Amino acid sequence: MHFQLKPIARSLVVAGAMAFALAASPGFAAQNPCGAKPAASKAGANPCAAKNPCAAKNPCAAKNPCAAGDKVDPKLVTRPKGYKPYKADHATLIKEGKALWNDTRLSSNGLSCNTCHTGNAAFAPSFAKPYPHPVAMAKEKGGVKQVHLDEMVQFCMVVPMAAKPLGWESRELAALTAYTAEVQKKFKPNPCAAKNPCSAKNPCAAKK
Ligand code: HEC
Questions:
Q1: Which CATH code of 3.40.30.10, 3.40.50.300, 3.80.10.10, 1.10.760.10 fits the domain covering 58-201?
Q2: 62 C-alpha to center of ligand 1: Å?
Q3: Among 28, 63, 161, 192, which is least packed by CB within 10 angstroms?
Q4: DSSP assignment letter at 100
């Protein structure tokens, strides 16, 4: 009696193992678009891993400024009646808005808009659509169905920046809105974002 497998049986075992490997790896990659946990070889094969801002450093996850879970009074973040946005030379507003975008003094937690949005990070595909449009954060935190761009600026002021909204008719809001509109022009939704489990787990987007 001997334990060596007959040649036919051995090739069946090998074929079975290969079929398993082939079947397992694509599924594995699909479930792991972040590529955080799996072995380096598998993460390397994943095209989303490099572009995923969560994989490197997610400022939301790190400081978790949105995890407070408090609802936002929609009155704070929706345009007041008779609202007349501040008007000034557009190019000047964009220039001033860029400075504000990088200014941590706008927040109460040391963050600037740019902390989260460097290289278009943290934006969902909705940002590519013309305003007004629905945004998950606005709906979940304020029950607001759709937002204008200046209202979204105010949402990020109140929620992730943990600050007071800017004055509705202030030069600052007009400037930050003008600059954010420039950012939007260069934004292309990341095809991986929808499949990204980090965005689903993002405390800023979480329900409550
Ligand atoms: C702590 C991280 C954080 C900071 C700081 C932050 N944001 Fe955001 N922002 C987010 C997240 C997360 C989203 C995605 C919300 C969603 O899609 O539900 C977002 C979305 C947006 C959007 C796009 C909404 C859309 O139309 O899809 C705009 C515009 C925006 N932020 C502007 C700003 C501005 C302006 C500032 C600074 C005043 C700022 N953000 C600061 C996390 C942040």
A1: 1.10.760.10
A2: 16
A3: 28
A4: H
